[in-house]
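Open question from group meeting: does this chain pack into something compact, or does most of it stay loose? Before anyone orders reagents, we agreed to write out a predicted structure and look at it together. Recording both the input and the output here so the notebook holds the full record.
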Amino acid sequence: MAETPNPTRMELLKARTRVKLARKGHKLLKQKRDALILEFFKILGKAQDLRSDLNARMKSAYGALAVAQSYHSMQEIEAASMAVKRAPNVHVEVRNIMGVKIPTLEASEPKKLLLARGYSIVGTSAKIDEVADTFEHVLDLIFKLSETENGIRRLIIEIEKTKRRVNSLEYVMIPRLEGQAKLISFRLEEMERDSFVMLKTIKRKLEKNAEEKRKAA
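Structure tokens returned:
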């Protein structure tokens, strides 16, 4: 059960101050929510483009692999793939969007030179080089897509949290605080009316007593 506020001027000022702060917070949270939604759709569009590009690159990479298989045996292709050096290091940075921390990924070696790939140029052909090149592009796109997908998930979580806070302020907190302020104001007005009536009554009694004393004198 809600606590009944004390009907004093100080409590009325406090209640009105709380209402102003709640409205200000509500406005700021709505601005944050709208900014996050705009950023969400921006990243979503980027993710859709990356998915389309990745599908095309994957199709091209597997096509290049099929062509290489017509020139080399599976053993030769597997030997070349096993000789490839480890995957490139991934550099992670954090981007802050309205308080949401979104990691950005970047490969330290997005594209390798032929000699840096690890397999020998003896016993291989340009077809294997083409396969390696196309799959390196695929890997680079996977980095970028994972970054955008992660950003989308984090933004969705923050948007939902912000929406709940906005709704809580708009439909619960602000109406409750406004109700308290109105109740205090109503009680103060009622007390002032009672005080006015009491003073009028006392005044009439004093005047009556003074009149009786004057007549008796």
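Observations to bring back to the group:
Strands lie at 90-97, 100-107.
Helices lie at 9-71, 74-83, 126-216.
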